């Protein structure tokens, strides 16, 4: 936003990556066209040790130290400083100590049904915690889903929310969205549990609506054809969707088909036969599912035959 208005911007992050929550490949691609071509500088792996406000015609002074060694790193002189260092739980003063509940870094410990857990590992009767205060996923729509899950419990309907089915999005231009596990997380899980993962990738370059929407916009069309990415991480032995990552037009809207599939436990071998309207941006997800190679092995002679592979359009 600020660079679009002609301002120079400098990011300062304590972590070693600019987009640590997103898949590394997506983060690298996004940095390539969201940050590098613009008047944006950045520091990673540093803390701000001191900020001196502008006074008597002098600029704002920001002193940086190395996040690991705590040694002085640099001193910046800027027109203004915007602090956006994340969020912290506000759970003090709730009287949790009166019911033997000890927070963890300020977050209220809960079980998979949002029930509050005390210091002895026991459930606190009739007490639930949803939203940012439990630290599961600090997103507004996650809090809403957690609240619905609690209402289900209160009305006698057992319900467990799958947090891996909750999408996240970065509303840049173009957008970035994700659901489920990143590739490193999926590989770690696969190694721990003893299964293989596969990754299918595609782009918007054959999507007629995307091409039409970028007509006359050469730079955006270049990104559309060569940079925008759709990635599907899955188990080839079961068809389970482990994660989907999108970088491109309306990514925050397109991710919901993958979100629904994970929430409902729909395997790729079922969802890949769904029909999509044409021409629509969502057809690219149809192509992504069809590119996935699933081979569910029959356990006995009477079991179903191996999964058929439809041909990608």
Task: Considering the chains and any ligands shown, give keywords for the structure.
26% helix; five-stranded antiparallel β-sheet; alpha+beta; three-stranded antiparallel β-sheet
Structure at a glance:
With 313 residues, the chain is of the alpha+beta class.
Give me the secondary-structure category: alpha+beta
End-to-end C-alpha gap:
37 Å
> Oligomerization state of this entry?
single chain
The number of helical segments is: 8
Rg value: 23 Å
Task: Describe what this molecule looks like in 3D.
The chain is built from eight helices and twelve strands. The chain has 313 residues and is an alpha+beta fold. The strands form four sheets. The protein has a five-stranded antiparallel beta sheet with strand order 8-9-12-11-10, with helices on both faces. The chain has a three-stranded antiparallel beta sheet with strand order 3-4-5, with no helix packed on it. The chain has a two-stranded parallel ribbon with strand order 1-2.
List the helices and strands and how they pair.
Layout: E1 9-13, H1 24-35, E2 40-44, E3 46-52, E4 60-66, E5 72-78, E6 115-117, E7 123-128, H2 140-154, E8 168-170, E9 175-180, H3 183-193, E10 198-202, H4 208-213, H5 218-226, E11 229-234, E12 241-248, H6 251-264, H7 268-271, H8 283-291
